[in-house]
Every structure is written in C-alpha cells, then in structure tokens.
Write a structure and sequence with these properties.
This protein is α+β, with helices and mostly antiparallel strands. About 25% of the residues lie in helices and about 40% in strands. A seven-stranded antiparallel beta sheet has the order 1-7-6-5-4-3-2. A hairpin with a 4-residue loop joins strand 5 (about 85-90) and strand 6. Helix 1 packs across helix 2 (about 30-35). This is Activator of HSP90 ATPase.
Length: about 140
C-alpha cells in the first residue's frame, strides 16, 4: 500500500464570516473561481446539488490542454454552515468542517488518500486549493 496514512488533513483560517465562506465553498460560480492548486489549472464548470444524496462534479483542466478530469462525489451528510461529508467517485471519504470564531472561519478538510501519489504530495495539492480558496474569499467583495 502506497499510503499508510488513513487520513490527511488540510486547513486554513479565512478572514471572513462563516456565511460568506460557506456560500463561496458551495456556489458553482464561486467554485470555478477558486478550485485550482496553481495558475496552470482551472475549473471551467462546476455543478453542485447541495443535498444529502446529491452529487457534485467539478471539471478540472490544465490550461495548456494536456490533462483534464472530473472531481466528483456524493454528499452523505450536510449540516449547514458546519459540516460537509461526501464520498468521492473512487470511494474515498472526505469531510469539510467550518468553524467561525470572532469573524474568521476555520475550514478543515480531512480526506482518505488515494494510492497513486505520495501522501505528502496529496496534502500539498489539497492545501494549495484551500489556500487559493482563502485568497479568493478574502479578496471578494461582500
């Protein structure tokens, strides 16, 4: 087994209220603006059925056209403004927790690693997307 780690965690603190953070995390028009780990990638489309049993699919593409894939899954648990739990298309479990404290919101993603890439590379990739999310939300007018 390539990754002995059972879960990986990435987190950030966004200088924005919980409601704004939740909206940016779950709204397709916002998702297409922040869902990339680097400038070489982008998300041309996002669909999000934010209901338990609902599915989401984010199309991720390399800007040079060399690679593309769908990041998709099914929601298993939704607690508005607090928690999202979902199963990715490859059966890995993910949870995203939101916690507001004094006008700032902590976002914590915990996910099961896949086995093709080293755990540290996966953590760095998910953290880079989360950092891009923070930058987007903090730069977005209310």
């Amino acid at each position: 087994m390539a990754n002995e780690q059972s879960t990986i965690t990435a987190e950030t603190i966004v200088d924005a209220p919980l409601e704004k953070v939740w909206k940016a995390w779950t709204t397709p028009d916002d998702i297409t603006q922040w869902n990339n780990a680097s400038d070489e990638w982008y998300t041309p489309s996002a669909d999000n059925n934010l209901t338990e049993g609902g599915e989401f699919i984010y199309r991720m593409e390399a800007r040079d056209g060399s690679f593309a894939f769908d990041f998709s899954g099914t929601y298993k648990k939704i607690v508005e403004h607090e928690l999202l739990e979902y199963i990715l298309a490859d059966d890995r479990k993910v949870s995203v927790a939101f916690e507001e404290n004094e006008g700032k919101t902590k976002v914590t993603e915990t996910f099961e690693p896949e086995e093709e890439n080293p755990a540290e590379a996966q953590k760095q990739g998910w953290q880079a997307i989360l950092d891009n999310f923070k930058k987007y939300v903090e730069g977005k007018a209310s």
